[in-house]
Design goal:
mainly beta; about 10% helix
């Protein structure tokens, strides 16, 4: 996953935005326990580098303080065809999550650009190398109430 993207969004003034910078979801594909999934997610998340959040050309600092771990299992329901877990369409799967999120509050009415950047890299237990790079810009219109 990851990649470079640009998105256009519209919200109403007063709405807050929860934005993922880099996140990892680990799922019970072969019957793993919540504990083993949390350890796996933590390993991936600890390989995160180069976190950036830029709001209207102003870089937000200390993003490492925004790590969130969902420690209990949650269910991802009604998976679509060709889902990233390789499961049949309509299936459900239990998962945990770990990563970096930022809550953006009180944006004024008008146009805003929000860019999130992050990288993860490392090796899977199989020895296979993996790299994830995220670079997403949101062109956000905030409409006055």
């Amino acid at each position: 996953m990851g990649g470079k993207a640009e998105r256009e969004c519209t919200i109403t003034e007063g709405q807050d935005i929860l934005i993922p910078i880099v996140t990892t979801i680990c799922a019970t594909i072969t019957g793993e326990t919540a504990e083993s999934l949390l350890a796996q997610c933590a390993d991936f998340t600890e390989q995160t580098r180069n976190l950036k959040l830029i709001i209207d050309r102003n870089q937000v600092r200390n993003l490492e303080d925004n790590r969130v771990t969902v420690e209990s299992l949650f269910t991802i329901s009604d998976l679509p065809e060709n889902n990233l877990f390789g499961l049949p369409a309509g299936s459900s799967i239990d998962a945990v999550a770990d990563g970096y999120w930022v809550l953006i509050e009180n944006l004024s009415a008008g146009e805003h650009d929000i860019t999130v950047v992050g990288k993860q890299h490392g090796h899977l237990s199989s020895g296979e190398k993996w790299d994830l790079k995220t670079d997403v810009t949101y062109h956000l219109s905030v409409e006055g109430e």
